[in-house]
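Weekly puzzle thread! Below is a chain. First person to post its structure in token form gets bragging rights.
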Amino acid sequence: MSEPHEAIVKAYKVFGLEGDEDFSVVRDRFRTVIKDVHPDTAASSDAKTVAKLQRMLKAYEVLRRFAPRRHDITITPEEARKGGIRTIKIQDREAMIRVPVAVKNGTVVVPIGDPLWRVHIKVQDVMVDADLNQQGEAELKRLAAMKQKFEDTKVEEDAEAHTNLLKAFCERFVKASPAARFAKWVRGGSNAA
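Winning reply:
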């Protein structure tokens, strides 16, 4: 076994973990167990407690540097079937992952050139999955509201156009007297007869 690998395994054991958990699990465990040995909260501050605190801090530093980080992505069944290279945003930077052809739900891949991260792939059809039903209903309501707003706007625009057309007709033919219309026709202004 290589020396860094042994240090990582020992660091996981300090926190009572299996050895394959990601850093968020390590961080949560560290925050709960450190309270037992921290001088501000521990019952006693003897040499054993201080040594245990130092061991935990050193293990935490090792795992902070080497424990894998988790990132989740959701892809459609079509994307899962095709596979391919995909660019994703992890925290504040771009990373590339290779999605295998016919990838299954729960597959874990490592970004290209970044072994510290583990990308967990979830294959999910947004239109079919039951657990997204509420989000789907909200999306459908939003789309229906947008459609209604578009139709209302279109009806208002159509009504306005018809009103303007009717006004123009009335001004041209109804309001003008026959003599005025005849005079306009004689001058050649338009086809007002």
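Puzzle host: Confirmed. Bonus trivia for everyone else. Residues 13 and 79 are 39 Å apart (CA to CA).
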